[in-house]
Amino acid sequence: MPNDQDVSDAIIESAITIAKRVKAEALLVYADATGNLDLLAELKKGSPRLLMLARDDEGRERAAALTDTVVSVPNFNLTRMDQIKVAVLMAFSQRLLAPGDTFVFLTGIMGQPLDTIVTMSVGQEQEIFQSVKQPKLTEHIRRVVFERVITIALELANEGREGKPVGAIFVIGNHREVTKFSQQNIINPFKGYTEKERNILDDAMRETIKEFCTLDGAFVLKGNGVIVSAGTHLRPGVAGEPLPQGLGARHAAAAAITASTKSMAITISESTGTVRVWRLGQLITEIEKAPRPTGTHVSRSSDPVGGA
Asked: 143-287, which class in CATH?
């Protein structure tokens, strides 16, 4: 019976063949799940482009030895499908993937060898990433700001606050437009501080944001990461597209504010821990909170390509 490494090597070889056969623009693979990086060496200067994904410093070091195109992704236990969603979202924000691009993705149970090949096209698979007719993802927002907010949202979704689940909404972009459609429910806790002191890119802000996420209302941020306000009630001028069944007021506000302004919204569902990204009144993608492991293997029947 073949061992896990033999299976992983066979999957990498098959993925390269598939990527070339379908003329994919990119092959995406997690560095920490790839035992034999030499198998990917032939893609250094060829087609498709090799996008190495790294969840930590060790992964970045391994990936950098093979390619200059290393995409950092948040280090969370995610299902196979959500690993793909997060990676594609990050690659798209860095303009390494574009609408219509076909890609091949290698994934598996986090912390274990690769076991799955997925071939998809950006924007044509709504369950992955709805990008058709969308402007560039970070058109008015610094890439690092978008990635920081996504990471904090995933942290809150997976960890909660003091052991309790929390819901939140972050609105990033043209804050002057957003302010026209909002009002403060409470005294703004960020008022009076310098922009440097209230920038989300400052690591010291993480705990502050997590503390204030218990407030009713939204965080409003400039595209450069400066936090304008928290506890902000959104009153958008137009409604977004009809919401999927089961989504409530927080998601309706996110859809509507992005339909009314040049902004992007990221929401966390208090009931499920699902993180959703909104743009132009549309739900772009959603990343579900992974089930907690109950043993050496975790599966979820609703995951189209298996468990996390």
From this structure: alpha beta
